[in-house]
Amino acid sequence: MRGHLRDLTRKQHYATLCNTMQQGNGRNNAYANAAVYRKICVFCGKEFTCLKSSTLYCSHRCSSLAYKQRKKDERHRVADVLFQENRNSVLMDRLEKMELLSPSMAALYLGMNRTTIYRYMSAGALPSIRIGNSTRIRKRHLWNTSR
Q1: Separation of first and last alpha carbons in the chain
Q2: pTM greater than the 0.90 cutoff
Q3: Is residue 146 helix, strand or coil?
Q4: Taking the CB of the first residue and of the last residue of the chain, which one, N or C, has fewer CB atoms within 10 A?
Q5: Element at 145 (helix H, strand E)
């Protein structure tokens, strides 16, 4: 029977398995007591039958495509983290050279939320300067406030 099953496609194999189990013809075969699970493929969403409860994919193709997608997502996550680290280091280098900072830049510089900076300014704990329509904070005042 094993040689016969090797020649069958996966769908034909499961169809043969299901028919053998449904017939219950008293033959002593390896699949007589096996449970058949009806599941939905995690990748493509198609319904399929399987012998294990832990099976996630309907075919080798879906399994391979899901693996490739996971690896691609992982590469994107790593690239995003590296981009953010590089972006923050460039911004911090620029902030080191500036004497007047906007509230957003001050928040980034101190590692705080922008709303916290505005709260400090409205409470009078952080002096600020109005230049036209923009608000600026001297960097030396940031150190006095945060310590």
Answers
A1: 79
A2: no
A3: helix
A4: C
A5: helix 139-146
Quote the tokens at residue 8: 């069958």
Please state the rounded mean pLDDT for residues 23-34. 56
The alpha carbon torsion through 61, 63, 67, 69 (nearest 10 deg) reads 70
Q: Under DSSP, is residue 112 helix (H, G, I), strand (E, B) or coil?
A: coil
> What average pLDDT does the chain have?
80
- Give the other-Cβ count within 10 Å of 8's Cβ: 13
Angle at alpha carbon of residue 16, lines to 44 and 33, rounded to 5°: 95
Measure the CA–CA gap between 79 and 89, rounded to whole angstroms.
15
- Under CATH, which number does the domain 98-146 receive? 1.10.10
Extract the tokens encoding 10. 């996966």
The residue-averaged pLDDT of 5-24 equals: 59
Report the range of poorest mean pLDDT among 61-65, 94-98, 135-139. 94-98
Number of other CB atoms surrounding residue 73 within 10 Å: 10
Stronger pLDDT, 26 or 9, i.e. the higher one? 9
pLDDT at 1 over 90: no
Give the CA angle between residues 29, 31, 35 to the nearest 5°.
Answer: 150
